[in-house]
Design goal:
The chain is 68% helix and 7% strand. It is mainly α. The longest helix has 30 residues, at 139-168. The N and C termini lie far apart (92 Å).
């Protein structure tokens, strides 16, 4: 029986550690995707996270808010104090990311339930973890952080949604719709883009093919 409780304690400690470094993981993932894969739509999300940090810094500075020791990311070294704090609560950061993707799904009128449920689960686990370690002690603070993250994430997506959807277009769609053709029409619908083109050759090739057929006759 004691081994079972020991296993649960180990699992809880591991889960708390994962949640503790989760914001850094989000930053690393977005920066890695932007620099290595040149995924510009992820760059929009990274810009949003930086914007969120600036808002958090301003709020933390002018409100005089001081995080307790349990909120530090890397814990404390004896005699040296805590190693690092974020400008925003972990809950607020995860709520910001979740709100960004939720508004993206609503904008497209296409609810991706797997992503939605994963983000909700991630937010719940973050709330549970931060409360269990004593970083947040009241439900009012939880509601405030969720509300702030949701509002800021939604506002940021609203102002950058056009740029985000532009970067989200695939390479094929950009090359087909934006480059090299003069006899096509792109019709954007809510769930994607329909490309209507006839014939299938670039502008100028049709005339060449017709001339070749006449010469052969």
């Amino acid at each position: 029986m004691s081994s079972a409780f020991s296993g649960l304690d180990t699992f809880q400690a591991l889960l708390n550690t994962v949640v503790r470094i989760l914001p850094l993981g989000v930053y690393f993932f977005t920066y890695f995707s932007l620099t290595i894969y040149k995924d510009l739509k992820v760059g929009i999300l990274l810009l949003g996270l930086i914007f969120n940090e600036l808002i958090g810094y301003a709020f933390k500075k002018y409100s005089g808010k001081i995080f307790n020791d349990a909120c530090s990311i890397f814990g404390a070294v004896e005699g040296q104090g805590n190693l690092a704090f974020m400008n925003n609560e972990h809950i607020e950061i995860i709520a910001f990311v979740g709100s960004f993707f939720l508004f993206d799904m609503l904008q497209k009128d296409k609810m991706e339930w797997f992503r939605f449920n994963f983000l909700i689960f991630l937010l719940i686990i973050t709330i549970w973890s931060r409360m269990s370690i004593g970083c947040i002690n009241g439900l009012e603070e939880v509601v405030f952080n969720v509300f702030m993250g949701f509002v800021l994430g939604g506002l940021f997506y609203y102002f950058f949604s056009d740029k985000y959807r532009e970067y989200e277009k695939g390479v094929f769609e950009r090359e087909t719709c934006d480059l090299g053709y003069s006899n096509y029409k792109c019709e954007t619908i809510k769930n994607g883009t329909v490309i209507v083109k006839s014939p299938m050759n670039p502008a100028g090739d049709d005339d060449d093919d017709t001339n070749d057929d006449n010469n052969s006759n």
